[in-house]
Specification:
The protein has helices spanning 3-7, 19-29, 40-60, 81-86, 90-100, 225-228, 231-236, 239-245, and strands spanning 31-34, 64-66, 70-73, 105-114, 139-145, 157-158, 177-178, 186-190, 195-196, 207-215. By secondary structure, the protein is α+β, with helices and mostly antiparallel strands.
Length: 284
């Protein structure tokens, strides 16, 4: 069944404030747009920080660009408390907890600036690295809209219902629609959903978004926070944020010693090494 046939059976979802409606849309279509996910003040603060960081990375010569127009900013937990605060918003807990279970992890936190002249991204699913279809998502995402998302300015292209395709066939760009919504909304989508950044066909509109990718607690994260998180942030951040990054033992995973080890992860001051039969250390 193609997306066009599927779309013809019922109206595609529109933006909503009703979270139960959003969950129904996610189940059927693989995505939902939640209105008023951020206050105008939060949108303004996040947008200004993204613009400043993008300019700073370009000035430093480390800016990452998709082609000439679009720019990505990686590892946002290191680049402002405002980004870390966003990941503790109750909406994240509600939506990702329902899709991925209460112990979900933050897999990556990045920004995407789609500028005029940007070309469309290739179509993909964010859990495409899993080489088989899963009946439930292992990954789910939130695109936080810092500007209005429109068809013209590069609003995310997606294939409604493709998360329910066990054959995972190749989709044509003509089967996509643009996810549209006002600044402050959040596009929430299943990690199995086929999607990609749209082309910004406007003359002057820059479309800014923050992308938070989340995963089940047994999935390897896209960003390695154990190595990449600023040590000063690691020492000072809230426990609930660090837990979302994986600094916690879950079901025996992530431990540094015995399977019964529990609680937050800390670097070992004195790792237990090779011992002789009397408990003394052995070289090497």
């Amino acid at each position: 069944m193609t997306v066009l046939q599927t779309a013809g059976t019922a109206p595609l979802p529109g933006p909503t404030r009703d979270l139960e409606q959003a969950f129904a849309d996610l189940e059927r279509w693989g995505y939902a747009v939640v209105l008023d996910a951020m206050s105008p003040a939060t949108v303004a603060t996040l947008r200004a920080r993204v613009i400043e960081q993008a300019a700073g990375e370009d000035a430093r010569g480390v800016g990452f660009h998709d082609g000439k127009a679009n720019q990505r900013i990686w590892m946002l937990p290191n680049k402002g408390r405002v980004f870390r605060d966003l990941m503790l918003d109750p909406l994240v807990e509600t939506m990702m907890g329902r899709l991925l279970g209460k112990d979900f992890l933050l897999s990556s936190l990045t920004a995407n600036i789609a500028r005029p002249g940007g070309v469309p991204m290739y179509l993909h699913a964010d859990q495409g690295y899993v080489d088989f279809w899963t009946p439930r998502p292992l990954v789910a995402n939130i695109a936080w809209m810092l500007d209005d998302f429109t068809d013209a300015n590069g609003g995310t292209r997606l294939v409604p219902g493709s998360h329910r395709d066990p054959e995972r066939r190749d989709y044509d760009p003509g089967e996509t629609i643009a996810a549209e919504g006002p600044a402050g909304a959040a596009l929430i989508f299943d990690g199995r959903l086929i999607h990609g950044t749209g082309a910004n066909r406007t003359e002057s509109q820059h479309r800014h978004a923050i992308l938070s990718n989340h995963c089940r607690p047994f999935v390897r994260q896209q960003e390695n926070y154990f190595l990449g998180l600023d040590p000063a942030i690691r020492r000072s951040e809230r426990g609930e944020f660090l837990r979302r990054l994986g600094f916690w033992i879950w079901a025996g995973l992530g431990r540094t010693n015995t399977p019964g080890e529990k609680g937050p992860l800390e670097p070992l001051a004195a790792p237990l090494g090779a011992l002789d039969g009397e408990g003394g250390p052995l070289p090497g």
